[in-house]
Amino acid sequence: MDPRTFAIDLFDRWTQLWNLEFHLAADLLAPALELHYAQAGSELFDTVKTPEQLLHAIRHWHDLKPGIKFEVEGLPCVDAAQSGDSCSGTIARPYNVCLVNADNEDVWRSGTDILKFQDGLICEVWSVSSGREGRSFRQDLAFVPN
Description:
- This is SnoaL-like domain-containing protein.
- InterPro entries: NTF2-like_dom_sf.
- By secondary structure, the protein is of the alpha+beta class.
- The chain has a single domain, classed as Roll (Nuclear Transport Factor 2, Chain: A).
- 21% of the residues lie in helices and 39% in strands.
- Strands 1, 2, 3, 4, 5 and 6 form a six-stranded mixed sheet that branches.
- It is globular, with a radius of gyration of 16 Å.
- The termini are far apart.
């Protein structure tokens, strides 16, 4: 298995997990997790240490922000190697999140997640986003000057 391809697929599945595809968790998350979230209002994630707690936190996040959705964006940066029958390493990649505002309009924000994985399972996550008053780097929304 090519480690770069593995890491990109891992990140794609991580993003799907955030879109409530919880069936992916068993083949995605290590039994012990370490999360570092810098966005305002993400204090809930400071206490998450297990896959079950993460799924509960993601569900709670969706309950607080109905209609929220996540997507990958941009090119990944991968440092990974074969590790037994699987891969270990890190992947950093931008993502977009779409929130629905009070006027029922889509509001896009950008962020970056860095996933550390060991033997094919995510064990540590660093995440930062533009936050509530931030902006999106989503390419199809970008202003292109004349």
